[in-house]
Design goal:
Blueprint lengths: L14 H16 L8 H13 L3 H25 L4 H4 L12 H32 L1 H10 L5 H14 L10 H17 L6 H13 L12 H28 L2 H21 L6 H14 L2 H5 L5 H6 L3 H14 L4 H26 L10 H9 L7 H26 L5 H16 L4 H16 L5 H17 L3 H17 L6 H15 L1 H31 L28 H9 L6 H17 L13 E8 L9 E8 H8 L9 E3 H8 L3 H12 L7 E4 L10 E4 L9 E3 L12 H30 L1 E3 H12 L7 H13 L3 E3 L7 E4 L2
Parallel strand pairs: 2-6
Antiparallel strand pairs: 1-2, 3-5, 4-5, 7-9, 8-9
Helix pairs in contact: 1-2, 2-6, 3-5, 3-7, 5-7, 5-8, 5-9, 8-10, 9-10, 10-12, 11-12, 11-15, 12-15, 16-18, 16-19, 18-19, 18-20, 20-21, 20-22, 21-23, 22-24, 23-24, 30-31, 30-32
Length: 818
């Protein structure tokens, strides 16, 4: 629209006359009767007024007109819809005293009317803005006044929303907020509401500001509505959360909480403002998750119940909920760790209880154990069975929580760390874990891998490595493993030497070369021993000794510092007996022993052979006069210990009907009393190998007992194996365990000293605290060193002048002495 200023410059205008025309037109616009108006003419009139510098007057007149119109016409229509169902409130609780249906219907009518008033006002003011465009562009900009449209929006805010509906009543804005909040409460309770009415009124609040400056952060929606919405929502969800913790189960609670979060997001998009979505979701998360997570987890149907009953989907819901509010999942992590520890403790307690059950009588041999298995009794030592079950149960526990971690916890790294820590604590809290894990491997190496495929064998070995990985006292495990490996190799109990070596290779990868050094040396000794045996046989053949009665010898030459030979003895007392007594061999045996010693010394000068008779076995032929059918003699091939062989050979030259006393047998052989008693139990008490007759007959072997050849012995088997009591790998007794731990602690002392010297040699001068920390760090891969032991070893090194205290240092420090 182009207006030429020519002809207006010298003509005065009548402001009141022109305003009268404009005011009448504005009234027509507000009454929706503007079809006959000429907007070009109206624009010209407004243009004239502004051109004559009367824009200030025009601006005020328009503002006054709008203020009167809103107060006299619009406001009254809106207030009239504040019917009793909307205004009847309880004076104490503030809640409505009418039914939900009445309140809902009245609220919708009010919202519809207010929406209409706002939309009409916007349409009318858009039309007025077209008429007053020149005033906005010239006067409002020059005088820094809000545009007439903005001014009219402020008038709507002040005249409609910020004035009390009636005397002694809240302002309409507060009533509007309460009505919208009531409608939202109904929606949360499952009622169907007119969301478009709420959205229209929310849009109105987003279009209005606290002041005429229209600062973005001062929208009425933010300052008047959103704050109350978030506060009442917090109250609602706080109450709902507490109620659901009392009345529902944990799975239902999780599903409900997730649904509520999604609902609030949808509500913000469809009904309120999207800018509120993250805020209300945070409120719901705080009230239903963050503040309730501990209670949710501890419910009777909580995490422990879910774990016990494999409710993986529900566990996943708990994980998802806490992940929303805590990246560390603190409460869930604590709960899972506690459950793992409790389950681990239950497994340990069950193993301890099983170990306490009565075991086989002291005189029972392996043959008796086999007899008992047929009648339902345990085949092997119950304590050993408990040890094996402990390892299997611990592995099952790990598998169970690994499955939970993958399926319910989305393979979360922090929970994996927590689970690993808990598994390690559960294993290391049991003082016998090192021994039990070694026994688990021992059992699998002897029979567990029988008839298994390569993949199954590898899986079994990997399970053993998993247990070993969690173990803290790896040096103590090494002690037990060497004992058990020693017996497997020397007694030919291992199913596969290649699998044994495969296990050593896995240990080397996991724990390093130093851990497996002695284990590998044991296999090397076995290989060299086989070569020595073959070499000795060739040596004998070259001598031309064709004596058919000559004893055939198979030997194992073992490095004394590598092999735990105490595994074949019965503790400190037996060690002492073994060291003090020189076994007496028959001439035929002694000749072979002497021959091999001479052969060995020729090959290896400077070495000393010590014969470990308690560790050997023998194959002998024995003829019993009445063993065959019809009382005819019968010969049996007997496999027995070397000690048992020496005992049986004594009865070869004994006259018929003669007997030997316990003391006589001991004097003739020099076998340690404890070993002699065990072997005599096998030869004179065990039913299947009763080659000797004991008088008096009893289970126990006592001094004064006499033994004679059992010419009436009968067996349906040609080959007979004599079992020796406690010959297998079994759980140590309390006395044996204390001895093992003492030796291990002594060994740790040397390792600690070596570590301290190595550190100080590199660092030269180091503070006391730093030395302790570095020592603990370096040794933690082998065992958890005791701080007091480290301190004692430091003092010992000072006394032996490896270290000295630095007197002038500000903190206690040490210096390495070259």
């Amino acid at each position: 629209m182009a207006i030429h200023q020519q002809g207006l410059a010298n003509n005065d205008i009548d402001f009141n006359e022109i305003w009268g025309v404009l005011e009448k037109a504005f009234l027509e616009i507000h009454t929706k009767n503007a079809s006959a108006l000429s907007f070009e003419e109206l624009y010209r009139n407004a243009y004239k007024i502004v051109l004559k510098k009367k824009g200030d007057e025009l601006y005020k007149r328009v503002a006054d007109f709008e203020e009167r119109w809103l107060a006299m016409h619009v406001r009254e229509r809106v207030v009239n819809l504040l019917t009793p169902p909307l205004m009847m409130l309880d004076s104490v609780s503030g809640r409505s005293l009418t039914t939900t249906a009445e309140k809902k219907d009245s609220g919708e009518k009010f919202l519809r009317e207010l929406r209409g008033a706002w939309e009409d006002h916007q349409v009318c003011m858009s039309m007025l803005t077209d008429v007053l465009m020149y005033m906005d562009r010239v006067y409002c900009q020059d005088s820094r006044q809000p545009s007439i449209f903005a001014k009219s929006m402020g008038l709507f805010r002040d005249q409609i929303l910020r004035k009390p509906a009636r005397a002694e009543m809240p302002i309409l804005l507060d009533i509007l907020t309460r009505i919208i909040l009531d409608q939202i409460r109904m929606d949360r309770d499952g009622e169907t509401i007119q969301t478009h009415l709420i959205k229209a009124n929310i849009s109105m609040l987003e279009g209005l500001y606290d002041s005429d400056q229209e600062v973005e952060d001062e929208k009425l929606y933010l300052t008047a509505f959103e704050t109350d919405f978030l506060a009442t929502s917090a109250d609602f969800y706080r109450s709902e959360g507490e109620r659901m913790l009392r009345e529902s189960d944990a799975g239902t609670y999780c599903t409900h909480a997730k649904r509520r979060i999604d609902e609030e997001g949808d509500r913000c998009r469809s009904t309120l403002s999207e800018s509120t979505a993250p805020k209300i979701q945070r409120v719901v998360e705080d009230e239903l998750i963050r503040h309730k997570m501990k209670g949710l987890i501890e419910m009777d149907s909580g995490v422990e119940y879910m774990v016990d009953n494999d409710k993986l989907q529900e566990l996943g819901h708990v994980f998802d909920l806490e992940a929303r509010v805590d990246v560390k999942k603190t409460e869930l992590t604590k709960a899972i760790q506690k459950i793992v520890m409790e389950m681990g403790a239950n497994i340990t307690n069950a193993a301890v209880a099983a170990s306490a059950t009565p075991t086989a009588p002291p005189g029972a041999t392996e043959e008796q154990a086999e007899d008992k298995s047929k009648t339902g009794a345990a085949k092997v030592n119950q304590v050993t069975v408990a040890a094996l079950k402990w390892s299997e149960d611990i592995l099952a526990l790990k598998d169970r929580f690994d499955n939970i971690w993958r399926q319910a916890f989305q393979s979360d790294q922090m929970l994996q760390i927590a689970l690993n820590r808990s598994m390690a604590d559960a294993i290391n809290s049991f003082s016998r874990s090192s021994e039990y894990i070694s026994l688990f491997i021992d059992d699998n190496m002897k029979k567990g891998i029988r008839n298994k495929t390569d993949a199954e064998v590898d899986s079994t070995l990997e399970k053993a490595i998993i247990l070993l990985r969690y173990l803290q006292d790896k040096d103590l495990f090494e002690t037990y493993y060497k004992k058990h490996l020693c017996k497997r190799l020397l007694l030919n109990k291992s199913q596969s030497i290649s699998v044994e070596k495969q296990m050593i290779s896995k240990m080397k990868i996991e724990l390093g070369n130093s851990f497996t050094l002695k284990l590998e040396a044991m296999f090397k000794d076995m290989t060299l021993s086989e070569e020595l045996t073959n070499g000795y046989k060739s040596y004998v053949n070259k001598l031309g000794d064709a004596d058919r009665t000559r004893v055939d010898l198979g030997i194992n030459v073992l490095t004394s510092m590598t092999w735990p030979l105490e595994a074949f003895r019965g503790g400190a007392a037996a060690d002492e007996d073994q060291g003090n007594l020189q076994i007496i061999f028959p001439a035929a045996i002694d000749r072979v022993k002497t021959g091999f010693t001479r052969f060995y010394n020729e090959k290896h000068s400077g070495r000393k052979l010590t014969w470990q008779t308690n560790m050997g076995d023998a194959d002998i032929k024995a003829t019993f006069a009445k063993a065959g059918k019809d009382g005819k003699p019968r010969t049996h091939d007997i496999n027995c210990s070397t000690y048992a062989m020496l005992i049986l050979l004594l009865f070869n030259d004994l006259p018929a009907g003669a007997s030997l006393a316990f003391e006589e047998i001991q004097a003739a052989t020099n076998i340690p009393p404890s070993d002699l008693a065990r072997n005599l139990q096998s030869l004179a008490v065990a039913p299947k190998t009763r080659f000797l007759v004991k008088e008096p007959m009893s289970r126990e072997i006592n001094p004064g007992d006499r033994f004679s050849y059992n010419e009436n012995f009968k067996s349906q088997f040609v080959k007979i194996k004599v079992g020796v009591v406690s010959a297998g790998n079994k759980v140590e007794g309390d006395r044996e365990r204390k001895e093992t731990e003492k030796k291990n602690n002594d060994s740790r002392g040397y390792v600690i000293e070596a570590c301290v010297v190595r550190i100080m040699k590199q660092r030269k001068i180091l503070a006391h605290t730093a030395l302790l920390n570095e020592t603990i760090t370096q040794l933690s891969a082998q065992f958890k060193p005791d701080v007091n032991m480290i301190k004692k070893k430091i003092e010992s090194l000072i006394e032996r002048e490896y270290l000295e205290r630095v007197e002038e240092a500000a903190v206690p420090s040490y210096r390495y002495l070259a």
